[in-house]
Amino acid sequence: MIRSGGDIDAMLREHMRLTATESQKTAWAEAEAWGIDPDIMAEAALAAALGAMVAEGGEDAALALIEAMRERVIQGAFEPEQTRH
């Protein structure tokens, strides 16, 4: 099967997303081990992400990210997974 450039780009992007997610989970677990409260960790993570977005793409990019994440929260994308029987 021959993959198009778009398929390869999508696969690479997904791999990078999964790697970043695992890195964040590791950092979160380490901070928990140090006794840092989850709300402090969340605020620090969001501040770092938004600062990077502003530096890279400007305020509009950061605001677009905030709005996209807001919609995902509303849609329940971050709810704990339910066990299904």
Characterise the protein shown here.
- Helices cover 76% and strands 0% of the residues.
- It is mainly alpha-helical and 85 residues long.
- Helix 2 (38-57) packs across helix 3 (59-74).
- The longest helix is centred in the N-terminal third of the chain and has 29 residues, at 5-33.
- It is globular and about 50 Å long.
- The termini are far apart.
Q: What is the β-strand count? A: 0
Poorly predicted regions are none
Instruction: Sum up the overall morphology in one term.
Output: globular
Radius of gyration: 16 Å
Order of helices and strands: HHH
What's the helix count? 3
Distance between the termini: 37 Å
The secondary-structure class comes to: mainly alpha
The profile of the biggest β sheet is: none
Overall pLDDT metric: 91
Give a concise summary.
With 85 residues, the protein is mostly helical. It has three helices and no strands.
Notable features of this structure?
85 residues, mainly alpha, 3 helices, globular
Lay out the secondary structure.
Layout: H1 5-33, H2 38-57, H3 59-74
Helix pairs in contact: 2-3
